[in-house]
Amino acid sequence: VGAALAVLLVAAGLIGYYVLKPMWDRRREEAPPPASGEQLKAVVLDVGQGDSILIVAPGGKSVLVDAGEPGDGKVVLDALKRHGVEQLDLFIATHAHADHIGAADEVIDKVPVGRVLYSGVPNPTRNYEDFLKAVERKGIELVRAAPDQTFELGGGAVLRVLGPTEPFFKKDDLRSGGNEPNANSVVARLDYGEFSMLLTGDAEMQTEERLMRQGANVKADVLKVGHHGSKYATSEDFLRAGEFKTAIISAGAANRYGHPSQEVLDRLRAARVRVYRTDFQGEVVITTRGTEEGNYKIETAREPRSGEDMAAGREALRDDSSRRGFIDFGDLPPAPGATPARARSNTNTNANRASGGR
Ligand SMILES: [Zn+2]
Questions:
Q1: What is the pTM of this model?
Q2: Residue spans of alpha helices (H) in 156-204
């Protein structure tokens, strides 16, 4: 009995030291420094069915998180110019899919970039190789994202990496149709005084669960909704833990991937989160001085047009949990009746067929 008790005590000690202590340590991670009171800007660009988010910190340092689809280079470069950004201190490739790193090479070729952060989970496509080649060609330092890396952006603004955590999710760990690059997306939080924003790439619920289980600080004012509003992301539990006030969905007006899904819009509404959508409002600009809780302003490039129902989700042409599994970039054609933005993604779909992923 004595020996059994000793074993039990040792086991409890080990669990305490190796499981509970790291969780505790992560929870009481340093509070962000005080905000300088100068303006910080976070811009969710309108890149159609993809992601590209620009952060301009007080003092002028800037970060670009993803760079849209192939061919979106002009849209991203124009946005950088409009927001007074001539160089990027950091480019984050949340994951290797074409709707996130598609135009990264076009941006890297035109704008000086200090460092590139990536998930390290590869995707054997031409788009991804073009991105890596551009990084190499320009001699830019390539850093693999790891939890608790922090990037001081100046004026008190800090970007902190929360994921991916290792061991990486493997195909067998994921739901049917789930996908390794998505599940291992770079997840980061931006803190500026009282303001915070969570950037999730295309991470879905399994990643959200892992982050919460590991005690990562996911609580933030603004959520960049995971995976363009896919029903497999943004769980009720995650919304409860995040206590988000505002959610921004980056999706294309003509997508047939079911983004954003009705389920996610309903979950956001139930959690009383105010929703913005690039498909109906274009570019979304958040500005804050970081001084008071909840004190940030949001402007959109346009109002929703008649017939564009902010509360209405999209039907997927095919569900990616079907036996066929993951839906690749360009697998589903855009909806007919294209606006210029839709026409653009249409061209890219044809030019880059089977060259990436969603
Ligand atoms: Zn995506």
A1: 0.86
A2: 180-183
Cross-sheet strand order for the sheet of 195-199: 150-154, 157-163, 187-192, 195-199, 222-224, 246-249, 274-277
- CA 3 – CA 164 distance, rounded (Å): 40
Torsion over CA of 110, 255, 179 and 210, rounded to 10 degrees? 90
Instruction: Measure 101 CA to ligand 1 centroid, in angstroms.
Output: 9
Q: Which residues contact 4 (CB under 8 A, 6 or more apart)?
A: none
Q: Ligand 1: distance of its center to the CA of 2 in Å?
A: 56
CA of 181 to the centre of ligand 1 (A): 10
- What is the distance in A from the centroid of ligand 1 to the CA of 259? 10
The tens digit of pLDDT for each residue in 285-336 reads: 999 999 988 889 999 999 999 999 999 999 988 776 655 566 776 777 777 6
| Closest to 224 in 3D by CA, of 35, 36, 66, 14 | 66
